[in-house]
Amino acid sequence: MTPTAESQRKPNPRGAGARLRDEIVEAATRLVENRADPSGITLRGVAREAGITAPSIYGHFGNLDAVMDAVVDECFGRLSAGLEDTLPLYDDPVRRLRALCRSYVSFGVGNPRLYRLLFSRDRPVEAGPVAPKPVETMPGARAFGLLVQAIDACVAAGRSISIDPQGDATLLWTALHGYVSLLHSVPDFPWPVSENLLDQCAGRLACITP
């Protein structure tokens, strides 16, 4: 977006508010992708990238945190869509589970700044223990649900002895996230071939039978 785009932009027609909201989120997402440190992103910067005035944002978002929450939702949507694209490629449930693992890591490695944003945003410090929320209400629930469903499918096909697919999906997600994070922070470690490592993670943590 050029510096003069704001002054050149024509007002959105009536009823185009949803489109403007999407443009704000897309602009903020581009800023995250192009900055090593997203903490420097401001509402004014988002507005400039979107080619609008800063006050225009307040019709859709109350503050920068709300904009960034929407960016997180957008990024989880991209991750989920990538995972879903792998599903029709495999009939065998074990191969499908392995493909999901590879797709997850591929997204994290290929989009390091977006991936980092998903799990590194500061959250308010609560007083005392934090009560768990239902998984389906949390960001990333769609992507996590695909892992649960994939393990369920392996159980149904007699290919897994898991007695707790959601619990085992949690273990597998923990391993995948840890692997992506380590690839970012320790890239020169002598890692095994990625596909072999991921296949072993899926096999062991999803209780796949020989």
From TrEMBL:
Official protein name in the record: TetR/AcrR family transcriptional regulator
Keyword Magnesium: no
Keywords from the named record: DNA-binding, Transcription, Transcription regulation
InterPro entries for the chain: Homeodomain-like_sf (IPR009057), HTH-type_TetR-like_transc_reg (IPR050109), HTH_TetR (IPR001647), MT1864/Rv1816-like_C (IPR025996), Tet_transcr_reg_TetR-rel_C_sf (IPR036271)
Organism from which the protein derives: Amycolatopsis balhimycina DSM 5908
Span of domain HTH tetR-type: 18-79
PANTHER family: HTH-TYPE TRANSCRIPTIONAL REGULATOR BETI, HTH-TYPE TRANSCRIPTIONAL REGULATOR RUTR
DNA-binding region in chain numbering: 42-61
Gene Ontology molecular function, alphabetical: DNA-binding transcription factor activity; transcription cis-regulatory region binding
A Pfam family matched in the record: TetR_C_33
